[in-house]
Amino acid sequence: MVAILGATGTGKSSLALNVAEALGGEIVNCDSLQVFRHFDIGTAKLPVSDRRGIPHHLIDIVNPDEIFTAGEYSRRARETIAGISARGRLPVVCGGTGFYFRALVAGLFEGPERDAALRERLGAREKRRPGSLHRLLSRFDRDAAGRIHPHDVPKVMRALEVCLLAQRPVSALFRDGRNALRGYRTIRFVLQPDRERLYQRLDARCRQMFQGGLIDEVRHILSLGYPPSAKPFESHGYKQVLQLLGGELTLEGALELAQRNTRRYAKRQMTWFRQEPGVEWVPNFGDDAAVVQDVLVRVAGF
RNA sequence: GGACGGGUGGGUGAGUGGUUAAAGCCAACAGACUGUAAAUCUGUCACGCCUUGCGCGUUACGAAGGUUCGAAUCCUUCCCCGUCCA
Hints:
Helices cover 52% and strands 9% of the residues. It is of the alpha/beta class. The protein has a 6-stranded parallel beta sheet. Helix 5 (132-140) packs parallel to helix 7 (153-166) and helix 9 (195-211) crosses helix 12. The longest helix is centred in the C-terminal third of the chain and has 25 residues, at 251-275. The protein binds one RNA strand through residues 8, 31-33, 42-43, 67-74, 96-100, 102-103, 106-109, 111-114, 147-155, 158, 162, 170, 173-174, 178, 231-232, 234-239, 260-262, 264-269, 271-272, 274-275.
């Protein structure tokens, strides 16, 4: 299995396509937003017409108002990869969601899934008394509480949820290990082009999205009946367009914010991938012809 | 030529005698991340030093002087910038 990782806008899709084409592969998406239907322009989803007949998996698999998680991703990606291998083809995992990739290869701990009802209760409690969840967590699991910052409510909540549901401290469950993926030789590439150039590209791409139908896409999604509170609307680009439509931002203001958030996101992705073990660094954009050659050679020697 | 307003750290912009190496925001940089992760959160951000301490020293709020125990903050002169009047 080959993995093409990297920050947004580094040319992963293009590289993956070339690699898959050259080596008889099929692409498995590893992007937390491309799994949603109708969110196309802002997620830079490769149009079907540009896929050159190469199968792309795990794209457009859930509706915008459905909850999709890293655990769900991990399960489905494993099934998909197994299927591709069984057909004698090469799985080419491609995406920028480091957490999903880790859930896929390293696995998650064995524990309870999220519980909406419990979360609602916990959320209400936190709202009434900010900080109370973290204090509660430190009673159940001192270790976990020490590792999670009190301000990081989502992580505090998940830890607490697990403790309550499993009747065991999360940190104890962590110690049991993760259900890592086995049976595949995996070579992972991380695209890491010059940061300045990447940022310029991202800014330009973001502008193109705004000019190229992002706003209409948002209107369309809303017209299908999906609420603005749907998860994928929280992502940069979409969030700003929503604010634009609501009169909170001007067009220029929305664009600038979207660009800024995209840059920040790219930065965070780089931080993540820097910690990713055993990766092959590619100090360039994936749509660079020389890079394709270089990567193919490295895969061949693997 | 005259009348006001203003010149603050990479940017913006607070601060109008001490608790200010100077809020906030932006930019930049570093980091965390075990089921909504394009999310969420943390740290650094004048320079040097070490015994890394709510440590020491140096430099800093257009420039130069002055007042004061003490000035980004008050006074004087000068240099810029903006608006208005001639």
